[in-house]
From TrEMBL:
InterPro entries: Metallo-B-lactamas, NDM-1-like, RibonucZ/Hydroxyglut_hydro. Pfam families: Lactamase_B (PF00753). The lineage of its organism: Bacteria, Bacillati, Actinomycetota, Actinomycetes, Micromonosporales. SMART domains: Lactamase_B. Residues 1-194 form the Metallo-beta-lactamase domain. It comes from Micromonospora halophytica. This is Glyoxylase, beta-lactamase superfamily II.
Length: 208
């Protein structure tokens, strides 16, 4: 997750993995005096990036068009701890993901998966100057990079990671070719969702 904010409004990147997680982030923002975001951007549709959205009232949710139908299908599932257990019994490869979801959710009362309310195809610029770029990749078809030109920061989400564990083949690995395509002299920092931030020089050295 990340928050990009100035006098034009705040952009929240990803919603958190659960409503409880989102409420913790909201409390932290309030404690520091930062305003509530106006826009919530999904880097992609996976649960640990979107399940907190229902705890961010009043924001416009922006995501790539490829994720909209996927999230509508997710929204239609009868989510509960019992449902998670039943799905793992039917398909054991779902175990790591679905057990993590069960641990993240104390209750499914008042929970909802929210598809984006505004979609884009290739690129989009928000009123704050934050730019969204569809990059795709094997991890998720709707993977989106969030570019912050004023700060020279590019938020990558999970775009270069391998496919989720239950879809992964033995030869699947990080998509380094995608990273090479994204590196840009105009951006000095690259931030992935589950990795340490890297400078442009550090990213190039790691790829070499």
């Amino acid at each position: 997750m990340a928050l990009i904010t100035d006098e034009r409004g705040g952009v929240l990147v990803d919603a958190g993995q659960s409503p409880a997680h989102a409420r913790e982030i909201r409390a932290a923002l309030a404690a520091t005096g930062l305003p509530e975001p106006c826009w919530l951007v999904y880097t992609h549709h996976h649960w640990d990036h979107v399940w907190g959205a229902c705890a961010w009232p009043g924001v416009e949710i922006v995501g790539h068009v490829a994720g909209e139908s996927l999230l509508r299908a997710e929204a239609a599932r009868p989510w509960s701890h019992r449902y998670l257990r039943e799905q793992v019994r039917t398909e054991p490869r779902l175990g790591p993901s679905f057990r993590a979801r069960a641990l993240a959710m104390e209750t499914f009362d008042d929970f909802a998966v929210l598809p984006p309310t505004r979609t884009f195809t290739d690129e989009m610029e928000l009123p704050t100057g934050v730019r969204l770029r569809h990059v795709g990749g094997r991890h998720a078809p709707d993977s989106t990079a969030v570019l912050v030109p004023d700060s020279g920061v590019m938020l990558l989400g999970d775009c270069w990671y391998p496919p989720p564990a239950h879809l992964r083949e033995p030869d699947d690995g990080p998509d380094l070719a995608l990273v090479r395509q994204l590196l840009d002299d105009a951006y000095g920092w690259y931030v992935s969702s589950h990795s340490e931030p890297m400078t442009l020089a550090g990213a190039r050295a790691a790829l070499a």
